[in-house]
Amino acid sequence: MDIAQLQSYGYFALITILVISLYAYIYHLYNAKKNADGVDYESYSNMALKDDIDDTPVAPMSDDKEK
User: Fold this and answer.
1) ∠ CA(56), CA(62), CA(64), 5° rounding?
2) Structural domain boundaries in the chain
3) Which of 23, 41, 42, 58 has a CA that sits 20 to 30 A from residue 49's CA?
């Protein structure tokens, strides 16, 4: 086994590990959409697109404090 073959096996193993970790991270992002408080932050993704004065707010605010 020469160095070129060893490098190709190492490259394949590295790419496989990186692909698996990327898919695990994507799964983690879409699986845990809400944090511990129960807030879905994915609804805030269109905030930059819907920023006119007459658009509806992303999250309705109330004057009463929730307990």
Assistant:
1) 175
2) 1-33
3) 23
Q: Give me the mean pLDDT over the 19-30 stretch.
A: 90
DSSP calls for 11-60: HHHHHHHHHHHHHHHHHHHHH--B-TT--BGGGGGGTTTS-STTSPPSS-
pTM: 0.52
Is the distance from CB of 35 to CB of 51 less than 8 angstroms? no
**CB neighbours of residue 58 within 10 Å:** 14
Structure confidence at residue 3 as a pLDDT band (50, 70, 90): very high
DSSP 8-state class, residue 7 = H
